């Protein structure tokens, strides 16, 4: 299980304490510091339901000022905050260098900013247009004894001063420019000018079909303008997941879900047993793509697709996005990890046979997991 789970557990009482301090004093027995009372769960669950509807179903809250509404900001803090923190830690786990200076744009109350700090960033600036969200980030920093700077920012305003080793944007790009791809790509280009050499721009988006496809379209514009993608793509051309309208590409990570999230998810009728997201790690202009490991290498981009007597996955690598299949009867000790692969793993196969839209592994094939989901892929820089 992820090694940042303990860090996240430490945040839970801070989130709850900060949320409670903002409420009128309640009478009654003292409340546990790590969990909410049934009444609190109902209250937060109702806010999360409203946020979830507005951000994922009808999307009427996307781009709206929901962070300025105390009830919705409180619901965000106790549910989406830990989810975004975990998504960010999992994504930052793919970076090979520790950032000194980090900037988090569209920070809200700072889950991604604090994830960067906990992952080893020296300093972080959290920037958003919502003053209440930034104030909450500062309160959390005090609660945690961590240092964080905050700035008001929106895309039409200048970026905070300076250059950064890491710039993060968690669940914000999909809220900008009414869905238009070109202005998003232009904004990311402007932001990439502020990324130091060997640094990264990390964009995390919801795993919805539309928001994921939009991120892939932005990726394609950046790739066509010469930017290198550090993760998750091993394929350097236009994204093959965009060919069919029904396809998209997203990540899924296992996590130890805090009880707080479990309680609120149940009340809001949501599921967060695993972390689903779309993400992109982009290098600043002038850097080349990392050389992939040698051989037939793929990132697994689907869940296991069970068939009769066989299993199939979609893999995406230097030769494109193809199916990888193996019949149960061909399992042996050289290839059995095929049945243990997860979405996001990077694997190498040998001795496969061309089959339909992809490759089949046989009892002559080998399969190696080169990097588990969320871990850096080895291989030199071109
Ligand atoms: C879904 S929240 C994400 C918060 C946090 N980054 C995370 O990953 O959980 C989206 C954030 O983007 C901010 N945002 C939306 N539109 C914005 C804009 N035009 N300018 C600046 N921030 C904006 C909102 O205020 C909100 O804090």
Brief summary:
The protein is α/β, with parallel strands linked by helices. The protein has helices at residues 5-21, 38-57, 70-92, 111-118, 131-144, 181-192, 209-224, 259-268, and strands at 101-105, 123-128, 149-152, 164-170, 195-205, 229-231, 251-254, 274-282, 296-300, 305-307, 310-317, 320-327, 346-355, 358-371. The site of S-adenosylmethionine has 21 residues, from helix 3 and helix 4.
Would you mind describing this structure in some detail?
The strands form two sheets. Strands 1, 2, 3, 4, 5, 6, 7 and 8 form an eight-stranded mixed beta sheet that branches. A five-stranded mixed β-barrel has the order 9-11-12-14-13. The two termini are 32 Å apart. The protein folds into two domains: 278 residues, Rossmann fold (3-Layer(aba) Sandwich); 76 residues, OB fold (Dihydrolipoamide Acetyltransferase, E2P) (Beta Barrel), CATH 2.40.50.1010. Helix 4 links the parallel strand 1 and strand 2. Helices cover 31% and strands 25% of the residues. The protein is built from eight helices and 14 strands. The chain is α/β, with parallel strands linked by helices and 382 residues long. The longest helix is centred in the first third of the chain and has 23 residues. The mean pLDDT is 94. The protein binds S-adenosylmethionine (SAM). The site of S-adenosylmethionine has 21 residues, from helix 3 and helix 4.
Instruction: Identify the overall geometry.
Output: globular
Question: Which kinds of small molecule does this entry bind, naming each only once?
Answer: S-adenosylmethionine
Radius of gyration: 21 Å
User: How much strand content do the residues show?
Assistant: 25-35%
The CATH topology annotation of the largest domain reads as: Rossmann fold
Overall SS class:
alpha/beta
Mean pLDDT, as a whole number? 94
Largest sheet, in brief, is: 8 strands, mixed
